[in-house]
Fold each of these.
Amino acid sequence: MTILTADLVPSSRRFDRRWSIPVVLVAWWLVWRFGFGTHNLPNGGPTFIQDWFLRIRNAADAGRDSSPLFIYFFNPIAKTTGSVISSMMSLTTNLGWTGITGIASAISLWVAGWRHGLLTAVGFISFGVLGLEAESMQTLVQIIVAVFLSLLIGIPLGVWAGVSNGFSRVVTPVLDIMQILPTFAYLPLITLFFLIGPASGTIATMIYAIPPAIRLTAAGIREVSTATVEASESLGATKWQRLTDVQLPMAKRTIVLGVNQTMMAALSMITIAALIAAPGLGASVISALIKLDVGAAFNAGLAIVCMAIVFDRVTTAASVRTERASRAGGAASQRTRLLRYGAGIGLIALGVILPGINRSLATFPDRWVHGTRNPVNSVANWTQLHWYGATSWLTTTVTHWLIDPLQSLLSNTPWPVVVLGLALLAYFVGGLRPAIVTAGCLMGAILMGLWPSSMTTLASVLIGALFTMIIGIGFGVWLGRSRMADQLIRPILDAGQVMPPFVYLVPCLALFGATRFTGIVAALVYASPAVIKIVAEGIRSVPANTTESAISSGSNSWQTIVKVQLPMARGMLLVALNQGIIFVLAMVVVGGLVGAGGLGFDVVNGFAQSVFAGTGLAAGLAIVFLGIMLDRITQSAGRSRRTTD
Amino acid sequence: MNVEPEPAISVRGLWKVFGPHPERIVGSPEAELSRADLREQTGCTAAVRDVNFDVAPGEVFVVMGLSGSGKSTLVRCLTRLVEPTAGQITFEGEDIVAADQARLRELRRHRFSMVFQHFGLLPHRKVIDNVAYGLEVRGMNKADRHARAHEVVELVGLQGYEQAYPDQLSGGMQQRVGLARALAVDPDLLFFDEPFSALDPLIRRGMQDEVLRLHHEVKKTMIFITHDLSEALKLGDRILIMRDGAAVQLGRPDELVGAPADDYVADFTRDVPKSHVLTLRWIARPPVVGEPLDGPELPATTIIRDAIRDVMHATAPVKVMSNGQLLGLVDHEDVLRVIAGEPQPVSV
Amino acid sequence: MRRMASLRAAALLACTGVLLAACAGTSNTAASTPATSSSAKPCGTVNIADNPWVGYEADVAVVSYLLKTKLGCTVNISKIDEQVSWQGFGTGQVDVILENWGHADLVTKYITTQKVAQDFGSQGNQGIIGWYVPAWMATKYPDITNWQNLNKYSSLFVTSESGGKGQLLDGDPSYVTNDAALITGLKLNYKVVVGGSEAALIKSLQTATQQTKALLFYFYEPQWALANLKVARVTLPPYTAGCDANPKSMACDYPPYPLNKVVRVAWANSGSPAVNLVQNFKWTNDDQNKVAEMIANENMTDDQAAQKWVDANPTVWKAWFAGTGLTP
Ligand SMILES: Nc1ncnc2c1ncn2[C@@H]1O[C@H](COP(=O)(O)OP(=O)(O)OP(=O)(O)O)[C@@H](O)[C@H]1O
Ligand SMILES: [Mg+2]
């Protein structure tokens, strides 16, 4: 009897899963066909939330001179941050480019070794070569301050979240909101609270940069082997001793990884911060954007990429070294360490003394400047002239065959059926919990009064995710199987990930016009690199002997990929899908700037017009709802697959 | 029987249930369900169910059972690394379940310590600092604790490795560090949770000998968990066998092998060469009429293996003596039957 | 190990020393302020908002150039959006908006209600909003510039976004627009598609010109991009007072928008000569287009462009110095 049920239950479940999803889709299609256009919700149905947001905003605006909250809390924060940043900026001008380059290289040398010291020197000199020395230094200062403050807040909170389940449960949704809510939606609010300028830019950056610090610190604390924690507990260590002797030292590597992620997140915010008068490379990108000067925007973007690569490589190497150093003890010999410290101090001294000897050495020599503006502009113009035929065909085709039908299915079916259908799909993919979350999130979008916009955006996001996965799997498999391809393509992927979207906005517009598809293309550029990397990682982590056994039993490359590598990398593919969706969603607002409409446009509109500030915030929250919904569905798909296997 | 000394640790009606609302299970009809049924119906796992035993001072008490039978949970309940759901634990007359956190810390710092299967060493600290860690959390100053740590490092045979980091040592040496760390605090009671199962057989045997030697030298009470019967038989004065959280049998090694309480225990002991565990008491039989009674005498506590030579060389059946009285006879046939693993005739 | 620690401390100390030395350098250079000009009253600091379109940047370029070089003011330029600029009046971080396009809601909030800002009069530019097509279309279909013929040509303007109707492309959401109401009022077979940014508009116009694609779009003057891109305006029924009263349906063209300056009340009362200059600042669409074009197309910095225009047009800007106590 037990054997019978044990055998029957999974197979009947398998039957369910295979047929239930198509059945739901067909039923949905039938409702769409016959109930077309009935029971639709207009944009702005229930607007009380939007009104409420607007009222809060106006109250803050009116009360900012009298309210003690402003006088004793927000204003001092803004003033202090502002003055710290401005004094650090004048410090960098006084140190000159040689001083800064010397200090940065020395720090890299100390924390990450010779090779990374050299990389840092090259990276910092490249700022000058691109002709953006001053702007780069302004950005650098703001990033340092934002990252420092983010870590100051994020690491202790992360420790707390790591040791307390209760706090972790409370903080996770907050972090989700902080990461998904588009900055555009609350940017005017931030300037209202923290004034215009670098202080607000820093705060806006921190909102986005703190979550990775918290998440990775908590993960690091939780990862510490229970055996070691138990051992210290069994010896009678107090909670504090356990934390300082065991958990923190053993989580160090993951925490440094959190520093890395925090830096990357901060860098990705610099163009947005430039919209509220934070000076630096972001401002260069924006000012090139309004002149439609692709080359100048790219040039500034390249400087950001250089900075990101230096930060990324140095912190990654530092994290590996912490691990090695803490385990093996004195790995490096006394002498090499001495040499490293000496060389670092020498570098700093040289860098600082040079401008002291001759003031003109403080500024980067003009004849070394070789910007990339003109060559990039000619490439962009040529491409636009010759590719337009093909790209406009692509736009029309994809819109007609994919975007329009899906959007119509989502917007023209009676809304209760859409909610039910999506919840059922979530149920069959991941189970009861994601189904409830899906229904809740969709009701949230309705409550925001932005149902049609939400459906437009959902359609674009789903199609964007589909394309991202196609590109991701195509390139990811290639990179995963070929070392050479990986080495060749990876720098481009790195650049694609940190290049500010505002840089490729204009080329996208040139090729695809002001359309929904342009929004998708921009999202592809942004989301594909991460997805490609994750897929490649998945392919590479398939054990070599499995692949070998497939090849030795006569499979050709295609069969090996389709029958062995992809199925075995399924877990990673789901992670890639999840990340792909989140990244595509992050570009919804940028889509709003290039004709994609939907929630992105609502957010942009709220940013531009104060009467729509409430709607903008509501649209931002609707994006959060969509994000949480898609995230939970894909994550649960990963989980339920794993448990049934 | 003479009056037993006060037990080092005494356990009564101990339960540990994992899952939602564990306290509702104990004492309810659900407590009678099998573990699988309980999980199906309530989502709870009864890791330890109604376990009772006493451990005498200086005894090596072994707990064994299959994977998942609740051994680790049991021993963690004893030190309250896991909170018991119900039951009493008395350590040297003190109620452990009632102890507050401060008292518990005090006990852990001075009275009992534990050796773990996966060592649980601090990878960022040198051997000497790992060994001294228990003293450090007590607040002992550096010189004193290093002096003490050096002693213990020597005791476990690790001299010369004080300045190494755990990653630079082999598994066996790492577990010696674990052992030294537990010994350094000079506890009354030592807990071992499968300390040697991650080691390969040769090193494992060496470590077992090490524990026996230490037990001989320092005379600590030890509670030792293993799923390896030969280890249990080798180390244990008494052995508790667990299945699905419940105690199945408690007894001396020869009692388990000679008189398994049920098929589960019998299954466990099937592959043990009985002649290595059982004493002559277990095979002595009443003399058959006309049998010669002039054979050599051997005490009843002699392990069969050790008696083989005498029995085989004797011309008449060996007389098994207990307290100067004849318990029964053992001849060639009887010994060979044991060695061949055939069922014995009814024992005395 | 101990030696390493002390070594690290030494390194840190050395760094701190270097930084301190550099700090000392800071205060030294900060002391040497730029020489003030012969102006009678001190000018102080002027905070000017720089909204993100090139024409506005041209206003800022010229005004701040004059403030710095002639009146010795310290000029802070904040690159911010319009809504945020107005907020700056409240926080005291923005003194001047040089080119304001309407924004009735913000006027009510900051001028009427909070009384932190005040209208500082016209700056001379006329915002000319309307519907345009690329010049090649006006040549090929001469009657297309009359709105009555738009329905005849609507099929030319169908795009992937317009749902089978003709597309009318709009730009940045913050710009004044009645387009949806106009389509209703004029009974046109068109649909408004919102590009979302000025970049989307200009790039679409560039493409339409380069690839001879049809495009009907909302646009405005003054506008630097029109120096290179030729367009033709579509005539709509003329504007009469009150014809745009119904926000749902209209049948008349946009009126010309006189663009004005807005300043912070406290700053306006500060007595700085900069206040007079800003009050007197007034130029034409042509002037602005010239400067904007230099900035956008000739890759000049703001100061270079301003200097070139200032050198060429002394009569225009000299008038702005009335009341500053300085006759340049
Ligand atoms: N923290 C926990 N939460 C839920 N269930 C647990 C927990 N710890 C243990 N269990 C369950 O309790 C049962 C007994 O586990 P325990 O670890 O005590 O077994 P064990 O006898 O030590 O096994 P092994 O030999 O594998 O170490 C198992 O079914 C296990 O799944
Ligand atoms: Mg265990």
Note: Chain C has two domains: 10-125+261-321, 127-233.
Amino acid sequence: MSIPIIEVKKLKKYFPVRANILFMQKEYIRAVENVSFKIYPQETVGLVGESGCGKTTIGRMIVHLEQPTRGDIYYTGENTRRFRGKQLKAYRKKIQYIFQDPYSSLNPRKIVYNIISMGLRNFHIIKDNRKRKEKVSEILEQVGLPPDYLFNYPHEFSGGQRQRISIARTIAVKPDLIICDEPVSALDVSIQAQVINLLKELKNELYLSILFISHDLALVKHISDRILVMYRGYIVESAPSASLFENTSHPYTKALISAIPEPGLDAHKGRIILKGDVTAVTGEIKGCCFEDRCYMSRDICKREPPLGRQLIPGHVSYCHFAEKV
Amino acid sequence: MFKSSPETTRRIKRFFKIKRAIVSLFILIILYVISFFSELIANDKPILIQYNGKLYFFAAYNLYPDKTFGGNYDTETQYRELSKTDRFTSTKGNFILFPPIPYSPYTSNLNELTKNPPTPPDGRHLLGTDDRGRDVFARLLYGFRVSMSFAIILLIIEIIIGVIIGALQGYSGGFFDLTAQRFIEILSALPFLYIIILTGNIFGQGFNTLIIVMSIFNWIGLSYYIRAEFLRIKKFQFVDAAKLLGTGDIKILFSEILPNALVPIITFAPFSLIAAIQTLSALDYLGFGLPAPTPSWGELMRQGMEHLSSFWLSVYPFIALFLTLLLLAFVGEGLREAMDPKEYARME
Ligand SMILES: Nc1ncnc2c1ncn2[C@@H]1O[C@H](COP(=O)(O)OP(=O)(O)OP(=O)(O)O)[C@@H](O)[C@H]1O
Ligand code: SF4
Ligand SMILES: [Mg+2]
């Protein structure tokens, strides 16, 4: 295969939390632990996991909105760690981001035209005012909004329309990769499908790669070529979409899949109910990150961290008992 | 084509609904505009002179030497004397049209007064004269212009400094924020009055000295609000989005965040004007404010203190000060209400 657009190697992010000042002990929230993955051109990679497992943090580190504590991010083979100034600007033009909250991600004081043309101006893509206006109208149509909305303010739009504006401003700068951070989780179910389909269409039209972040495995399955399952900052399973569902090899993934309601079937049939709750991790985990909630855990799980094992080509699981899941 | 943002429109509409505020603002603006024509309202220089068939306009703005009217000197005409001279009255049709209040705030009208100044209000001097025989009404009128102009200039400087420093602190956070905060604490611990007296002695009391010294301290209050707003707004995702779309830091500061942080500036403004006028009056009262002949309310009130029986020296400037501050307070309260109707209940 070709060079990945983005390769993430052993990425870690610890957030310091105010700890025991008296003894000068620092405590950290371990938001992301040793995460590695690749995104190839025109590939859609899904990143799923419960709320707080570190999905957004990974996305933000990729676009340099957050500094990794450890680890590196490679853009077409080049380490981005030292990117500053012009280089960073050029990199950001290639990697765009769609934010989760359609309300706080659009500046309430800016009209749609200024929001969408921002990248065109800053990256000097179109310098001529009239041409830029034409281009913005064109993009508005491309994302399914009437071009006469150009001079309206974000307040005047619904959540779905706002997300389309967000999409419009990212595709305007012709990126290679768009990171979609739960782009539809704030929207009505009926509108979710429309926005997802728009993303799919744009992906094919513009030869984009997408990193699709969501807590909804069913949604991720629908759009992704490959899926990464995250738990507490760790990636626990990584596989092509179909294989993840057919050859599930991690107890956590299995629990997630069992929680997807299937039409026609009894919703509770076969559902795996996990004990306990996700707790924020501040201390180091010795064994498996899922150990305290796993229904298959044994002694070894407490002692030794499971290493990633490839059971089928392209299908990696981080579980000592992957074969038995 | 361009519409103002709906939130702004709503706020403006809400402000216009608050009668007391809009009326107060209207009165203040009118008065301030009028005060720029004080020279045509209260002055001992005529608006119009007809002399030997020729018309002379606005003696307040044009210097007409004595020779123009048949005198012997190159110096400015003494118009009141002129109107009594034979060379003027002998020709038919010659006349002088004085402003409605024919007294300047600077001239002592000693030779016209029957008693020793300060004289009480009478038909000629509606609000009496001060201890140098100057017309109190004229001094109040000019004093309004001085006070308001002083406060407005101070406000503009305050906004510029306060916004820049508050914005940088809030946006950058971290070390710069902490250092600046300590610096501000030191600054606000300095004895203001002492420095005013000191600089007044070194550089001479004057409008500019006072503006500069007060500007050094004035921005602090506003910068706190701006800092807090920037700390809050920089966390919004549209700021991140702008960054990812290649917007530079300075542009993010002024074009993304600042337009969302205008509320504290707008609601702050009237109260800042109030504070400035109060401070100026207090300093004038103490004698550390504007230098001597400048018409000033505080200085009049001090005369009132010295001549306790002359009520017009303390009551009228007090009423003028009170009304101005009251109108400003109404405007400020209305603006606050219009910006955020939940948080501030109207004083009804
Ligand atoms: N700036 C920060 N400072 C401190 N802790 C943070 C910060 N950002 C994230 N965290 C913590 O890191 C963990 C991972 O957060 P993150 O936002 O990446 O999760 P997420 O998977 O995107 O969750 P969600 O589905 O709720 O968006 C959480 O425990 C969160 O509290
Ligand atoms: S390693 Fe052990 S605890 Fe972890 S998922 Fe596998 S069985 Fe469960
Ligand atoms: Mg998130």
Note: The interface with chain B takes residues 60, 63, 65, 89, 92-93, 96-97, 99-101, 104-111, 118-119, 122-123, 151-153, 155-156, 166, 169, 173 of chain A (CB under 8 Å).
